[in-house]
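Chapter review. Work through the record for Helix-turn-helix transcriptional regulator before attempting the end-of-chapter questions.
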Amino acid sequence: MLNGETIQFMRFQKGWGQVELAKRAGISQTLISLMENGSQEISHESKRRILEAFGLDEMDVLKIWNYVNSMKQLNL
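Structure tokens for Helix-turn-helix transcriptional regulator:
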């Protein structure tokens, strides 16, 4: 599941800012920000571009999402 927290986590892991991800995904930095803070739903096209920018597939994202959520439950 790709959501704002997962996008932000993946960016931090790569050492990318929003501008870097936006360039690599071919979408605006404003849209990245809106998706990360939950103000904008992530469209199928944006999701595809973001996954491509990170070089990930749906299964990778599911694993990352599970990790992020488990860390939240542990308050880490």
